[in-house]
Backbone:
């Protein structure tokens, strides 16, 4: 644990999800693999629904509609729909099929493994603070074992631009009725979480559980932790 700035009184704690409360790398890899396999089974003879073409479609869509870069769900749906239209489906059919595949993807996306340490931290902190989520991702948290800990979940796209933009931090302050300075955000990402929170006026904890150095930081957090459980020593 390393202190960079003095913490002031906290009323609300906001958590990043992916790679903060659980390891997201194997989860997203498995979900992506499931999706590509499902698309291949739907059109086994085609390469238009393969990884390379879908990536090319995504690049084009983001050039045409850069605002979709702030909404991973809407972007993925557009990519799937466009790929299916390239297969010859009309717009209505392509949209319906894209939504079906996306629902399956989200089901796989929700198959997270939450460490026991995460449960301990959330259970203990939930007795003293209001716990919330600010995420750039699309985890269907309501279908996971994390759901009971949080009463507010803000997602990029529906609730504003992606972190590090200040939108969701400001919205959380309004939703909870506290000042930005009374919000403590914790996350693993030095830009989206640390810089995003600090530049928005919140306090920030950097979960540095992969051994990065201070030279990687774009701005200083209030505290850096090596393990999530250290929050129980801090608060």
Residues:
């Amino acid at each position: 644990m390393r202190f960079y700035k003095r913490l002031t009184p906290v009323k609300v704690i906001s958590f990043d999800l992916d790679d903060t409360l659980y390891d997201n790398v194997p989860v997203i890899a498995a979900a992506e693999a499931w999706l590509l396999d499902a698309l291949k089974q739907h059109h086994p003879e085609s390469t238009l629904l393969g990884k390379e073409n879908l990536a090319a479609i995504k690049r084009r869509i983001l050039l045409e509609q850069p605002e979709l870069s702030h909404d991973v769900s809407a972007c993925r749906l557009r990519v799937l729909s466009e790929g299916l239209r390239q297969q010859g489906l009309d717009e209505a059919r392509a949209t319906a099929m894209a939504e079906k595949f996306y629902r399956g993807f989200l089901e796989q996306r929700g198959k997270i493994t939450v460490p026991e340490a995460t449960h301990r931290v959330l259970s203990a902190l939930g007795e003293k603070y209001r716990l919330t989520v600010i995420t750039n991702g699309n985890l269907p948290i309501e279908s996971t074992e994390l759901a009971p800990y949080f009463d507010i979940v803000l997602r990029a796209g529906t609730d504003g631009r992606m972190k590090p933009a200040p939108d969701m931090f400001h919205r959380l302050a309004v939703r909870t009725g506290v000042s930005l300075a009374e919000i403590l955000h914790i996350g693993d990402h030095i830009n989206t979480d640390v810089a995003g929170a600090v530049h928005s006026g919140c306090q920030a904890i950097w979960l540095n559980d992969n051994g990065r150095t201070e030279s990687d930081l774009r701005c200083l957090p209030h505290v850096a932790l090596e393990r999530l459980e250290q929050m129980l020593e801090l608060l």
